[in-house]
Amino acid sequence: MAKKSKIAFVCSECGADYPGWSGQCNQCGAWNSIKELRLASAKSGRDTSGYAGLRSEVHVLADVNLTRTERISTGLSEFDRVLGGGIVKGSVVLIGGAPGAGKSTILLQAIAHIAQHQAVLYVSGEESLQQIAERAQRLGLPTAGIKMLAETSVQHICSILDEEQPQVVIIDSIQVMYTADSESAPGSVSQVRESASYLTQYAKRSGVSFFLVGHVTKDQSLAGPMTLSHIVDAQVVLSSTDDARFRVLRADKNRFGSVGELGFFAMESTGLKEVKNPSAMFLSRAEKPAPGSVVTVLWEGTRPLLVEIQALVTESQYGNPRRLAVGLDQNRLAMLLAVLSRHGGIFTGTDEIYTNVVGGIKVSETSSDLAIVIGVVSSLRDRIVPYDTVFFGELGLNGEIRPVANGHARLNEAAKHGFKRAVIPKSNKPKDVIKDLRVYPVTNIQEALAVLEEL
């Protein structure tokens, strides 16, 4: 008698496993997302040697070959920056983004450049080859060296790869791929997981580099199981800013480079163009100065980035004043307001406070604490902060201003963009004088507020 397939219940949104069906996923909170899946038996033809596709052998760490990893340039320096310097041979990169973000466009531009030097293959499971050809023509890209394939079976794709021997392959998209080893429908959690695992094993054995295009869910996270993020070597997300002309490429995971690295692009009729000076992109401030507007210097990946933080303090019209943070951590805003009240002597408990990071950047580090507090005080007192002044520093619970990483590089970036004054933690005070930049080192919130009165 044939052995029955194992049945599993998996959330299609986050990949959480359950012993039985349930109406709501306890992990991500999604409703009606738990699906019944039939898993392939262990006797299937799938290679079970692991994602690396290598035999299980014991090695001495000192004997491992440490030769420099070969990289392939995409022709876009901002894309190469996010990848850690280019495409690593045999790597698997998952690129996600909302519909219309430009995933297929940036990959088509990259593969058109690579095709001039190496063999490439573009595998489309969603668009027709005619649609892709029309896009390439619209972008004015050279297409002579780009080989195309319309296929969704990973086994058939890999057999064709054995014949064509390309160096870089694009799979658009991983959600429509399927493997015969899984009995579930294409797009399901198990199919996405098994297809990605199959392609990753092939990449490690053959040295072929893969780009997997991934869809996103309604909360802008990558669709499919969480295992997908663990399988791939790098995971990057392409998103748009508040200004629809610009795109931001962020590395959420990278085994060959910095996590959190950002690449900036402008969407034009001829495709995505690199933005060499992203700080200027986010500093398009109003001509007339206004209270609550403060500039800070963030550190994104391997470079500084100047952004404007806006704060608005107004009287509450109701009994429960609101606290709203856009681009900032809501809980951190509440903590900073508590420190400002306790150690700065400025009470805002009865006021509504709104904060925003201009340009749609998501602030994930603590160096913007001082700028947020100064913005709130500026709006509360209706006092304009000079346009030529930047603030950065972490604010502790005792009111102290803590140092941040790469302080000297942040100051150089501010000076390069014409800023004349900088209020920073005392521990970040540079040893050498920076030309045309006056530095105000502070140790606590009281000193920072005193400097604000002097400006």
Automatic annotation (TrEMBL):
Source organism: Methylomonas paludis
GO biological process: recombinational repair
Residue ranges crossing the lipid bilayer per the database entry: none
Chain's gene name: radA
PROSITE patterns, alphabetized: RECA_2 (PS50162)
InterPro entries reported for this sequence: AAA+_ATPase, DNA_repair_RadA, P-loop_NTPase, RecA_ATP-bd, Ribosomal_Su5_D2-typ_SF, Ribsml_uS5_D2-typ_fold_subgr, Rubredoxin_2
Molecular function terms from GO: ATP binding; ATP-dependent DNA damage sensor activity; damaged DNA binding; hydrolase activity; zinc ion binding
Protein name: DNA repair protein RadA
Chain's role: Plays a role in repairing double-strand DNA breaks, probably involving stabilizing or processing branched DNA or blocked replication forks. DNA-dependent ATPase involved in processing of recombination intermediates, plays a role in repairing DNA breaks. Stimulates the branch migration of RecA-mediated strand transfer reactions, allowing the 3' invading strand to extend heteroduplex DNA faster. Binds ssDNA in the presence of ADP but not other nucleotides, has ATPase activity that is stimulated by ssDNA and various branched DNA structures, but inhibited by SSB. Does not have RecA's homology-searching function.
Short sequence motif named RadA KNRFG motif, residue ranges: 253-257
Lon-protease-like: annotated segments: 352-455
Residue ranges of domain RecA family profile in the record: 68-216
UniProt-annotated binding residues for ATP: G97, A98, P99, G100, A101, G102, K103, S104
Annotated domain remarks: The middle region has homology to RecA with ATPase motifs including the RadA KNRFG motif, while the C-terminus is homologous to Lon protease.
Family: Belongs to the RecA family. RadA subfamily.
A GO cellular component entry from the record: cytosol
